[in-house]
Amino acid sequence: MERPLSFSDYRDLAGQIRTWASELGFRRIAITDTELGETEQRLFEWLDEGRHGEMHWMARHGTKRTRPAELEPGTIRVISAAMDYWPGDAEPARTVLRDPERGYVSRYAVGRDYHKLIRARLQKLAERMREAVGEFGFRVFTDSAPVMEKPLGAKAGLGTMGKHTCLIDPDTGSYFFLGEIYTDLPLPVDAPAQPDVCGACRACINVCPTGAITAPYQLDARRCISYLTIENPGSIPEELRPLMGNRIYGCDDCQVFCPWNRHATTTAERDFRVRNGLDNADLVALFSWSEQAFLDRMAGSPIRRIGHELWLRNIAVALGNAPTSERVVDALQSRTDHPSSLVREHVHWALARHGHHSESD
Ligand code: SF4
């Protein structure tokens, strides 16, 4: 088929893209242009203040992140796609957060890794577009390259930035992944969503365990438990450890307590359903996994990416915050000779919390 040239052809194509996206499991797609001037300024201020912590990759790509055509030449439009992830079969988040002997895993990570799935679906969507219009320039992304996913999604109208810096869709909440297709097709753009969804609410700011939301729309990644448990490769600052409670991989508090998620949509994707009981697992049991058990059980999970060492580091902190009991202390003592000094340091800290002062490194 010939590539359409008229505005109405592109408008029809945009309508078809929405239908195909829905057939491929995306709740919504929306289209925007590539102008991100204000976002660029805010990003550079954030980086200058060092709020990205050890995420040096955030600073590495210069303006490629905020100017899509510098990353993928020829890009003039971004198709932003949303896919819900909240697993309906998971133990209620607040129930697990209240139980200090259980580990809390961010609900986006209790099932299979979303990267491959979303990427493959976006690729299929782009191929359907190619069947309709012939060859065109495109590249698909999901959390995989320097792409300003949330600002682009907001500009396209998929949601409005909340004070916690996640996108909120007033119809469905904030539990959704984003993916993008950068394209050179001059598709009609959608309007941004409503400018403010928070009003006077400050629930996320008040509930954040570590005070990482330092002001509305300002996140200090260095204090964020998602960063501390996933991106941070080293020691977790001691003053933050008691505040982390039982959160061992990511943190959902700012979203769990957001009023927009009271009636959040649950995912229809089988891949995002709970695997390995990670929605409500016993901390001592998780801490006992050997490296091989970790690698086997976490195959296909985003958690595998942090490796066994950081997994043990995170659980050691949660065990340090658990009520003192023989089984908690025994579990920690079983790791005092772990080959990793990082693990040993967190284990010694946790044992000290239970009144067991061992010789630390
Ligand atoms: S908890 Fe309140 S302030 Fe925070 S994002 Fe939700 S609505 Fe906005």
Q: Can I get a quick summary?
A:
The chain is built from 15 helices and eleven strands.
Outline the structure in words:
This protein has 361 residues and is α+β, with helices and mostly antiparallel strands. It has a domain at 7-90 and 108-183. 37% of the residues lie in helices and 12% in strands. It is built from 15 helices and 11 strands. The chain has helices at residues 7-23, 37-48, 57-60, 68-71, 93-97, 114-133, 149-156, 203-207, 225-231, 253-256, 283-287, 291-297, 307-321, 326-333, 341-353, and strands at 28-32, 77-84, 102-105, 138-141, 160-161, 167-168, 176-183, 213-215, 218-219, 247-249, 281-282. The strands form 4 sheets. The protein has a 4-stranded antiparallel beta sheet, sandwiched between helices. A hairpin with a 5-residue loop joins strand 5 (160-161) and strand 6. Helix 1 (7-23) runs antiparallel to helix 6 and helix 13 (307-321) runs parallel beside helix 15. The chain is elongated. The protein starts with 6 loop residues before the first helix and ends in an 8-residue tail after the last helix. The mean pLDDT is 93. The structure holds iron/sulfur cluster. Iron/sulfur cluster binds at residues 162-164, 198, 201-204, 258-260.
